[in-house]
Amino acid sequence: MSGFLEKAIKLVLLIAVFLLALNIAGLSSIAAAIMATAGASALVIGFAFKDIAENFLAGTILAFNRPFHVNDTVQVENVFGKVKSMHLVPLPLKQ
Questions:
Q1: CB of 19 within 8 A of CB of 35?
Q2: What is the mean pLDDT of residues 82-87?
Q3: What does the domain layout of the chain look like in residue ranges?
Q4: What is the DSSP secondary-structure string of 26-42?
Q5: Chain mean position to CA 86
Q6: Which secondary-structure segment (H or E) carries 84?
Q7: Which pLDDT score, from 0 to 100, does residue 40 have?
Q8: Cβ partners under 8 Å of residue 91, min gap 6
C-alpha cells in the first residue's frame, strides 16, 4: 500500500509541476483545458467504479465490525448458510 501511495503522490506532484510550468509559459488556456478534461474524466470514472467502491467499503466495514461469527446461520434472500470461517482475503470456492 505504501508503494501505491508513494507513486500516487509523485504523479500528483508531477502533474501539478507540469500545469504550473504551462501557466508560467503563458499557456494557461491549455492548462485550464487539461484540468477540465481531468475533472470530467474523474467524474466518469467515479460513476463507473461506484459499485466496486461500495462493495469494497462494505467488505472493509464487515472485516472490522465482524457482525458474524463462526457457526452463525445467515440468510441471503431465500438461501440459508452457516459461517464456516472468515478471512480478509477471499478464498477460492470449492465446487
A1: yes
A2: 81
A3: 2-82
A4: T-HHHHHHHHHHHHHHH
A5: 22
A6: none
A7: 93
A8: 85
pTM over 0.70: no
Beta strands in the chain (DSSP E): 73-76, 79-82
CA dihedral 38, 44, 46, 49 (to 10 degrees): -130
Element (H, E) at 25: none
- How many whole angstroms separate alpha carbon 51 and alpha carbon 57? 10
Residue 50 to residue 56: CA distance in whole angstroms: 10
Contact yes or no for 82/72 (Cβ under 8 A):
yes
When pLDDT is averaged across residues 18-34 and rounded to a whole number, the result is 87
What pLDDT, on a 0 to 100 scale, did the predictor assign at position 2? 66
- Check pLDDT > 80 for residue 63: no
Which helix (H) or strand (E) segment is 61 a member of? helix 50-65
Task: Decide if pLDDT at 88 tops 70.
Answer: no
- Give, in degrees to the nearest 5, the angle at Cα 11 between 18 and 35: 50
At residue 48, what is the residue type?
A
